[in-house]
Design goal:
The chain has four helices and six strands. It has a four-stranded antiparallel β-sheet with strand order 3-2-4-5, with helices on both faces. A two-stranded parallel ribbon has the order 1-6. The protein has one domain (about 20-190). Helix content is about 40%, strand content about 20%. The termini are far apart. By secondary structure, it is α+β, with helices and mostly antiparallel strands.
Length: about 200
């Protein structure tokens, strides 16, 4: 019995291998923290790129007087290059005008034309909802304004296992950006077919 107690006491006091066990417990946590930090920085990088790319696309359209389907298609390609997307991101351009003579303030904004790649066309009703939310700036009656929308997909390089919490689940996210810009020439027309003359859309249908 005394010999057994001696062996138990020796086993209890033996500290050999404790560092290996601690390392085995700590390393997975350190790896998880490192990958989580990388994903968080990466997701903010992608979001920042999507904001900058949307501004660049808006600047492109603001410099034009008339755009066509080729210009729309190329703008989507530019957006893909600026956001480092493997697949085509989505873009929608809505040109609208303002009519101060209409009594209902929410109905003074009218869609002139709307074209999207990946999005559907924006309706007048959805434009009015933006007006109700106060998201459309005041403008002159003779001017156009351009509402740019983009949508990019983010796929995390690592599954960091933060789900199912919605706020911290960064594995699949969609970044939607939008802004309003004024055409430098005052108006922006849409030419659906460059081979046909006088078919440009420059005012509300």
């Amino acid at each position: 019995m005394k010999k057994l107690l001696t062996h138990i006491r020796a086993f209890h006091d033996d500290e050999q291998g404790s560092m290996s066990i601690e390392l085995l417990l700590v390393v997975p946590i350190l790896v998880w923290v490192f990958l989580s930090t990388f994903v968080y920085f990466d997701v903010f990088r992608v979001e920042t790129n999507s904001i900058r790319a949307t501004i660049a696309i808006a600047e492109m359209f603001s410099r034009e007087d008339t755009v066509d389907p080729v210009f729309m298609r190329n703008s989507r390609r530019v957006l893909r290059e600026l956001t480092y997307e493997e697949n085509n991101p989505d873009v929608r351009v809505t040109v609208y005008e303002y009519d101060p003579s209409i009594t209902n303030a929410n109905r003074r904004f009218r869609v002139v034309w709307s074209e999207g790649r990946g999005f559907g066309p924006r309706s007048t009703e959805s434009l009015r909802s933006l007006a109700r939310d106060g998201r459309l700036p005041v403008m002159e009656a003779v001017d156009h304004a351009i509402y740019i929308e983009t949508r990019t997909q983010y796929d995390a390089p690592f599954n960091i296992g933060l789900g199912p919490f919605t706020v911290t689940n960064l594995e699949d996210r969609v970044f939607r950006q939008d802004l309003v810009v004024r055409p430098r020439g005052g108006r922006l027309c849409w030419d659906p077919d460059t081979s046909v003359d006088d078919d440009e859309i420059c005012s509300e249908p």
